[in-house]
């Protein structure tokens, strides 16, 4: 990783780097406002056991043409990059010396929004994806746990402007989540930049 602010977090079977305050407070606030206003937020539903269930957050998918994102019956065609998003892509790409052609953006409205345990291991991301996750707004807990070694887990408080890179075999061996919280929480935006092998969904 190029940016020396990215610290390696030592975990078995994972390659994680973390830069606290990758964006300064004012800059992070500026991007939060811009994205809150400009992103085409979607309220999606997925089908679970044959029933429609609202996704507990707003989300959006931006990317180069050909980076369609399909999961749980949803088909997210990429929206085109706009200036602030493109600027963030360039900053994050330079920091981790990795190209990204797409970004999944989540908007957690309050503590009732979250994302359950999962891996970002779709085939079209390849076997060892580099996923760069940038957080803006309200601090939220980010939980990680090893699939096979229950004693190995980690909780990070992701603050506005923090950058977390998940690389190597992380998506193979580890699950991650943003747990819901009973506390009164302000909105948070998370951008996870990805390189998706162009082609028909997956
Ligand atoms: O909001 C976050 O920090 C994580 C989001 C996430 O894991 C995802 O969208 O795949
Ligand atoms: Mn994820």
How does this model look, in words?
This protein has 202 residues and is of the alpha+beta class. The protein has helices at residues 25-38, 83-96, 170-173; strands spanning 7-9, 15-19, 45-48, 51-54, 58-63, 69-71, 74-76, 102-108, 115-118, 131-137, 140-146, 153-158, 163-167, 174-178, 188-194. The strands form four sheets. A seven-stranded antiparallel β-sheet has the order 1-2-13-10-15-8-5. The longest helix has 14 residues, at 25-38. The protein is globular, with a radius of gyration of 16 Å. The model has no long low-confidence stretch (mean pLDDT 94). The structure holds 2-oxoglutaric acid and manganese (II) ion.
Shape: globular
Please give the count of helices: 3
Query: What assembly state would you assign to the polypeptide chains in this entry?
Result: single chain
> What percent of residues adopt helix (DSSP H or I)?
10-25%
Which H/E pattern describes the elements? EEHEEEEEHEEEEEEHEE
Beta-strand fraction estimate: 35-45%
Number of beta-strand segments: 15
Measured between the Cα atoms of the first and last residue, the distance is 28 Å
- Strands of the widest sheet, in order across it, are 1-2-13-10-15-8-5
**Spans of 5+ residues with little confidence (pLDDT < 50)?**
none
Largest sheet: 7 strands, antiparallel
